[in-house]
User: Fold Phospholipase D family protein from Chondromyces apiculatus DSM 436.
Amino acid sequence: MAQDAAPSIELVESWPAETTLDQPDIPDASEVWKAMIRGATRALDIAQFYISDAPGSRLGPVLREVEAAAARGVAVRVLVDETFRARYPESVERLARQPGIAVRHFDGRQTMGGVLHAKYFLVDGREVYLGSQNFDWRALEHIHEVGLRVRSPAVASTFASAFALDWALAGGAPVPSRGAPQARGSAPVMPVDVLQDGETVRLWPVGSPEGFLPDDLPWDLPRLRGLIDGAKQDVQVQLLTYRPASRDGAPFLELDRALRQAAARGVTVRLLVADWSKRKDTIEGLQRLAEVPGIEVKMTTIPRWSGGFVPFARVTHAKYLVVDGRVAWVGTSNWEGDYFTKSRNVGLIVEGGAIPRRLDRLFLDLWRGRYVEAVDPRATYTPPRIDSDAPPTPASP
Assistant:
């Protein structure tokens, strides 16, 4: 891609094989990733929860592009969370052995109390990809995912600040004081305006957790609450999981209250989650929400692949919000407390233009499709098999 390409934003997807979820007009993540990495000339910074490849997968060519970038002189930095070091070591260790690729493990639990759950990468300081896809072969072949490719040095610079902070922390830098400017994430931030197809698109980078954000990256939780509070007609939310609590059981009610209040003033609220939410600690909150007048809650179930059981896959993993078809958030957080208060996540609010409208149609296609069922407030649900041995916690992917 030319260095001076006009700023733009593009919706990107992944879909489970043997389903009807592919949207022909939305580019495939594996192809977008390869093109972006192939275009790198100076720097490539990758932040991922973990990296997991398999023989013959769609992720393999992506990782080879990363290695090829380093071989032609691009400075490559790879940041992954410490949590899965032992579980998925092969791909990360392979990259670390390549000249020109620096790898650091981020101890999110020690630093923030959670994990590096963000999934994004930056190319030459001029464009960024962020979305629900982990660097996991399953994310490209067996999971429904949504992300954004953003060509904008201003937007890339904001996420580069988050990467620089986490890279330094992973290298042993002291944890910033909660009162320090780089820890607040609450300073006034101007949006980035992009003219696309004759429409002005306003972009707001956001992130979490509140106490560990560079000063130019605002906390996403109050921004999400504000979007829902401003809804006039409808709110559509798709997530892997939704829970009005944190992992320790403490109430997390900011978003739950916002959805209930929106419904109370006549806004149509639709929440779509994956069937991984059939666990007791998540399904009960969904059942309570489904009882609220004006709120509909559904779950998706993706059929098993003909090639056999695929652990941690065959699921809808996208994370986005659309309000009135005019503004959207695409991010890396599930809507549970720890994702906003203890873990590194990133997102982008898109106001105006085609992206919110297209996401709205994407949501409704799935909502009305063959893979969904309404949440019954009185039903007893059995969690699906997720791992080959036992059901894991939904945050694993």
